[in-house]
Write a structure and sequence with these properties.
Blueprint (H helix, E strand, L loop, with lengths): L3 E7 L5 H17 L12 H5 E7 L11 H9 L14 H5 L3 E4 L2 H10 L7 E3 H8 L14 H19 L18 H22 L2
Parallel strand pairs: 1-2, 1-3, 3-4
Helix pairs in contact: 1-3, 1-8, 3-8, 6-8
Length: 207
């Protein structure tokens, strides 16, 4: 069974979506208590359970590292920016994702235009976090740290969030501001908003 795969999407893939990618990965590691010494290992057990990746709707920064203030936020919050390289979003990235989280509602439209069948599993990040707070965990498959169990629970969470969404459009407040070219305070605020969604998701997904 492949790991449950979350694809984070923003414009250039050097600020918002990389922070979301790495902060979700850190949140998953925190839940399963991976020792710090193992966090950069290729056989990281957290990565075998949840694969957190990202891409941008534009390819202007393809191959570049994370924007420095974004990297500082990731490091300050216990994540790693090692090995990151920006990439342009392709249809195959969406095909491989069990959940797609975008920075803005416009990017949801972009994803769904590429892959209409991804509509039910594509959310603005803030929207997804807001929907999670209203989900009843009782009907979900048991929370366990076996890959099959994590995958089944992840799929069930996405399905429940989509049902809870009820066809309603995202709210304007669900969007993440673009921090590009702005100061560390703005990046810190955006990182806080990202964690407001990815930390509760990891907590719901894993025991």
């Amino acid at each position: 069974m492949p790991p449950f795969t979350v694809l984070h999407v923003c414009m250039g893939n050097i600020c918002r979506s990389p922070m979301a990618e790495r902060l979700l990965a850190r949140s998953v590691r925190d839940r399963i208590a991976v020792p710090a010494a193992a966090r950069s290992a290729a056989d990281d057990p957290a990565g075998a359970l949840v694969r957190s990746v990202s891409a941008g709707t534009g390819g202007w920064h393809e191959g570049e590292e994370m924007n420095p203030p974004a990297g500082r936020q990731v490091r300050a919050r216990g994540g790693s920016e090692t090995g990151f390289a920006a990439r342009k979003l392709l249809g195959e990235h969406i095909d491989q994702a069990d959940l797609v989280l975008t920075a803005t509602a416009d990017q949801v439209d972009y994803v769904v235009a590429l892959r209409p069948d991804a509509a039910d599993r594509t959310f603005v990040l803030g929207e997804f976090g807001r929907l999670l707070s209203g989900l009843d965990p009782a009907p979900l498959p048991p929370a366990q740290t076996e890959p099959d169990a994590v995958y089944a629970r992840g799929v069930a969470i996405v399905e429940a969030a989509n049902v809870h969404r009820g066809g309603q459009a995202p709210q304007p407040s669900d969007d993440l501001d673009d921090p590009w070219g702005r100061g560390d305070q703005t990046f810190a605020r955006i990182a806080d908003e990202i964690e407001d969604a990815v930390v509760p998701f990891a907590a719901l997904l894993l025991p």
